[in-house]
Backbone:
């Protein structure tokens, strides 16, 4: 009997051990399966740090020109200034010119002051290097009218023995219109206020696209339709797909020629009348950030 009980206990003990071993094996297999589905045993990670984004800056340098200051103006007078616009931005920008009379007068009427804007070059037909418009005789070989102000481009070769000012005069053409001549080539001026110039966007003070000396410099159109020039004065600007701009750190050398037509009468612009204008050059970043360089322009004192 004792032997039988001992045998039974051994049998039961053996069965329990078998079940325990089978359970352990099952858990082990389950754990391996679970582990293989949730954990990557071999990994490698590479990081890129110090990712940096810096916005562009837009800035035009100082005062672009010495203010006009002319007295005793009579019909037929030409008053002009060489202008230097420097792009101190770190990106290419479109830039615009606005001219606004500070106090309304007859000088801004259809029979009043007209302006011609040109860019000066050291080679013929508007090619070569852009040079200062007050350069000595022989330096400037040609001038090109600025399309954004004048509505079209005229390339005019100069008499190389004369300065730009020495070969500029006002006359009446065969059609009876008062025009400006540079080296005997007729140029029709536009009204001095950019708000009156159909070539520019005329909302507010209006802004004329100036382009730049290199047509290869194209920039995205500004994403805004108007800019604040100074104080509460705003100007509408043209929005196009792409425009010629002024390259980063580039300089644009232009000439502004203002004249009173020979056809102007005393009834149209009374004698001994004084007025002032503000001329603004504004660089515009496509996201709308703007800076302006402005100069008070006294036509009469």
Residues:
């Amino acid at each position: 009997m004792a032997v039988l009980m001992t045998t039974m206990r051994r049998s039961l003990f053996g069965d329990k051990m078998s079940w325990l071993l089978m359970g352990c094996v099952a858990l082990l297999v389950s754990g391996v399966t679970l582990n293989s589905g949730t954990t990557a045993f071999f990994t490698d990670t590479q990081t890129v740090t110090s990712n940096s984004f810096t916005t562009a800056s837009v800035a035009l340098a100082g005062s672009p020109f010495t203010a006009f200051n002319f007295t005793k103006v009579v019909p037929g007078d030409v008053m002009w200034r060489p202008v230097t616009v420097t792009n101190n931005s770190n990106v290419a920008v479109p830039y615009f010119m606005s001219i606004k009379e500070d106090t309304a007068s007859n000088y801004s009427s259809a029979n009043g002051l007209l302006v011609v804007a040109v860019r000066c070059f050291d080679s013929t037909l508007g090619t070569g290097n852009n040079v200062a418009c007050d350069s000595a005789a022989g330096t400037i070989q040609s001038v090109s009218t600025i399309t954004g102000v004048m509505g079209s481009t005229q390339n005019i070769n100069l008499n190389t023995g004369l300065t730009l000012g020495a070969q500029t005069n006002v006359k009446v053409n065969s059609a009876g219109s008062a025009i400006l001549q540079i080296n005997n080539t007729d140029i029709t001026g536009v009204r001095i206020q950019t708000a009156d110039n159909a070539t520019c966007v005329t909302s507010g003070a209006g802004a004329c696209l100036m382009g730049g000396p290199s047509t290869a410099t194209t920039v995205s159109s500004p994403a805004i339709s108007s800019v604040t020039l100074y104080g509460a004065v705003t100007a509408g600007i043209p929005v196009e797909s792409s425009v010629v701009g002024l390259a980063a750190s580039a300089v644009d050398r232009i000439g502004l020629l203002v004249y009173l037509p020979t056809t102007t009468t005393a009834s149209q612009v009374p004698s001994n009348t004084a007025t002032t204008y503000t001329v603004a050059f504004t660089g515009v970043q496509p996201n709308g950030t703007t800076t302006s360089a402005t100069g008070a322009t006294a036509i009469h004192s």
Summary: The two ends are 140 Å apart (CA to CA). Residues 78-298 form one domain.
